[in-house]
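Hi both,

Apologies for the delay on this - the queue was longer than expected. I finally got the S-adenosylmethionine-bound model through. Below you'll find the protein sequence and the ligand SMILES exactly as submitted, and right after that the structure tokens for the full complex including the ligand.
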Amino acid sequence: MTSQDRPARYGHLDCNSPIAKWRFDRQVDDCAAFAPSSIVDIGCGWGELLQRITERVPGAKAVGIDSDLELLERGRAGAARRGIADRLEFVEYQGEDWTEPADLVICIGAAHAFGTSAQAVAALAPLVKPGGRLLFGDGIWQRTPTEAELAGMWPDTKADEWLLLPDLVDAAVATGLRPLRVESVEQHEWDDFESEFLMDKEVWLQANPGHERAEEVRAAADAHRAWWLRGHRGLLGFAYLTLGRQVAL
Ligand SMILES: C[S@@+](CC[C@H](N)C(=O)[O-])C[C@H]1O[C@@H](n2cnc3c(N)ncnc32)[C@H](O)[C@@H]1O
């Protein structure tokens, strides 16, 4: 199958979550300065953040886990390119079943593997070693959406799927972790993310207007754009929480 047979998959995204380049770089800097010996990224995708942190912390042992084999392969290729494949392993695994603690636990955009945001932080907290950190990224509501607004988002979106930012932070604090940094993305970070997600399809459609799959690809792109621009835009935010566990007494 040639590359023209279907659109690329995540070909225009550096990582698979809404984040500005400066914010991503700062997360890499903060995590590298923390100098964890062990790192686990649950729902890592191709693990761009994980690769960048592992590269910056000599001796750190890292594992990225995901259920998507194609994304894991992209991660392995990246780790090999960076010369860190001996320290960074990409493993096919169900995130909710992972039990091995680490100094730095990362879970960004994969909370749904555990259920709601609150269930995710509760399940992830015990994986953080004493003195360790959790970098948790997930959707937040800017305000609670109405039923009519929910109906414009992607199918089966529910109001209790995400929390308001203060409630998410409270849910994290209730697990025994403390908030070291609370970030919430600007609208342009979501817009860039959705644009770059859709760019695979739009670029392919430009080059392949008469392809037998063009109609299907165009319909998928149009539906996704509607869920974004007529659906979650302005209602769904995204938060990154850097949470710390106290050292053992
Ligand atoms: C929105 S992406 C975020 C990827 C990555 N954390 C990032 O920020 O680039 C969510 C990822 O979670 C993975 N995922 C979903 N359910 C999972 C599960 N039960 N176990 C492991 N990974 C899962 C998906 O395959 C996908 O790669």
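Main takeaway for now: Residues 187-207 form the longest helix (21 residues).

I'll put the files on the shared drive as well.

H.
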